[in-house]
Amino acid sequence: MAIKSSKETLTSAWFLAPFLSLFTLFIIVPIFYAFYLSFRGAPTSFDLSSFRMVGLKNYARILQDWNFWSSLGVTCLYALINIPIGITASLALALLLNNKLPGKSIYRGAFFLPNVLDMLVVGVIWSLIYAPKYGALAQIVSFFFGPENFFNTTGVLGSPYTALLGVILAMTLKGAGFGMILFLAALQNIPADVYEAADIDGATKWEQFKHITFPMLRPITIFMVITGITSSLNAFTEIYAMTSGGPQISVMGKAVGSTSVSGYYLYKQFEAGEYGYAAAISFVLLLITLTLTFAKRAYDNRQIKGKKAAK
Amino acid sequence: MTETVKMNKNAEPQISQETKKSVWASPVLLAIAVILLFFIAYGTSEQFLKFGSMIISSFVPEEKGTQAFVSLRDAIEPSYRLLDNEYSARLDVPEAERKALPQNISLKQIKDTHEENINRESSLGMFNEAQALVQHIEYLEGRSKGGFPEIDDSILKTLTEQKTVIKTAMAKASSSSIFMAALRPLYVLLALLVALGVSFYAVKLYNEARPIMKGEIVKRMFLYSALTLLAVLVLFPFFWMLCTSFKPSGQELVIKSSNPFDFVPEEPTLSNFRRVLKLDAPADAAETEANRFASEAAKLEQKKNFGTYFLNSLVVSLSAALLATFIAATGAYAFSKKNFPYKGAILKALIATMLIPGMMFMIPQFFMICKMGLFGTKLAMFLPHLATVFGIFMLKQFMDTIPDSLIEAASMDGASEWQIFTLMIVPLALPVVLTLFLLTFLSNWSNFLWQLIVTDFENPGSITLPVGLAMFRGQYSSELGLIMAGSCFSIVPIAVLFLFAQRYFIEGMTAGAVKE
After folding, report:
1. Residue ranges per domain, chain A?
2. Does A49-301 carry CATH code 3.40.50.300?
3. What ipTM was estimated for this complex?
């Protein structure tokens, strides 16, 4: 028996070797390596030995870095607007498609298609649609309201108050098909007799939606919120392609980028050669993610306990 | 309650038969309605409007050379000549010293319309032209006030005086032209009514043939219209991209005065694609010692085209997809069918890393790649992303459903572990393996941030499509047609692939969520 199991371990090791070695090298090692780098300063040359040890200075700098905290604020704002709009749009599409309709799969494909297309290209196209003077939007609005309008002179991405909304609209139209598929699958799993019973009890369509449909879709909604938070923390390409973090806006007397999300700010530090500082920022972002994860887990556990207590 | 359920179950085949027959009749008719609706949108465009007004004018002949036409023509003439001379003169100057024309102006188009209107003696045409002219003068005034004068002050002063003349002529002419000017919205309304009539009639015919509930028809029509509108909204950027990429240089900025929704190029050209592929590069000069360096640089520059970028992206994404799928398949097999120490702990660690934002790994991975001496190579583009935890779970979940007895029977028959894996497990899991292959291909095709930071911009062999497009946009930021032609290289192949493998894409991408 012992011989057999050790033999099995050996064959498993062979099968696991490619995956585990790459995983360790490029996922596990970087976590510690980033921590190590976060105590180092900017290099004086491209040689890695030129990194000076700076101790905790990077972390002290983060605490005072107004631009970093504002980028976190923009990330929160991005998530707070983007997630509800995304969920509403996906749910609306799913409800429209959750009917007996010939040719339904064509629409399904059409809504899903932008999801598989390159984010950078989609961002570039949208930035040109929004562009003042020659963009498609300026063209349409100018036709009806003359050339002196907001879309033709400033452009959606040119004003700090609308730039983030412009990005969100583009991302919603790109990503709504994904949530739609999830909601559609969940909607089709709700048994029809629940609605029949509600009909008999005289519930209106809206009451049925509020008390049956929406609660049944709760797991998908939670999943969408979680992936939304992750993608807000990872947001970079759309900002790079559409706004480059701008336009600037003055908040409490300091100029900050109105669309400079944390991912973009991290890239900017990297681009500027502040490798040690960028590593420290990565670490702070990681801590924030972990805190959120644990908070969610604690909340789940409390709910499960609450349910058990109720029983 | 149970009885009704039973009844429903019994009734089910009948219902599905009913809908099966409706599957063909109803969409064909509605498709006609949708096509008509499209033509209405397109109907505001020049060609269709001309066709429409031709029909209508055969009933209501437009009076030729009316008083309105003559007075409008005379009012327009001075300002028209003035602007024409001014803008034409600018075009004679060499391009480098040229003072730019105001945005949104196509001289050729304006001249053509003007001549056509004069020839046709059309009062409506002259009225529209006068309106456009007044708008243009007001635009010039606004620019001048705003501190960006597009034209000399002396000319602008004359134009401002002329504006009042044109406006008076317009006011006089409007009473006779108003019918013709109102033709456009009337025409759209008419087309809309016809389309609605046709679809209602079609539905009525269908209804008589196979009665279904009336409410159902109205509901369906509403659903189809809403879905079509939304689909147009979602797909519009890509439609605009395709249209613009075929427009000749300079023409993509032209706003059509008749219809702002008409983005279809009138004279499609492939010149943008030729330029992004650098097909028309100058022939190689004779290679002397002196110009060797210059010609080397030119050759390098020549290689920086979208054909190269496309091939680079293809090589990177294909090798990444092949290797990642292989690695995930072997790993998943071990996790699913084998027992080894710490298996549970390793799986838990894998799940934990899935939560970490990918951004976190960027900086250390970059230094590791540099230390390995891989900076600027194709291998660096995908090596750190080969170990996909998502892939492991996706394949493991499927392999868990393969019964162990199958494997035991095979090993009894003397099959080696490798034979079991390649001849039994992989063929059985083929649909999932294919899905994973597509997904990793896709994620490497559009992995912009990572590819951007490991690209060596001097080496054309390391520039992938998204990075190439970002570079290209920096160079030609105002040439829409070129940027759009470059975008096509990334979008069109994936869109075509999606058409054929839609099911795999959708199932694969949503697999992570459905499990939860």
Report:
1. 49-301
2. no
3. 0.86
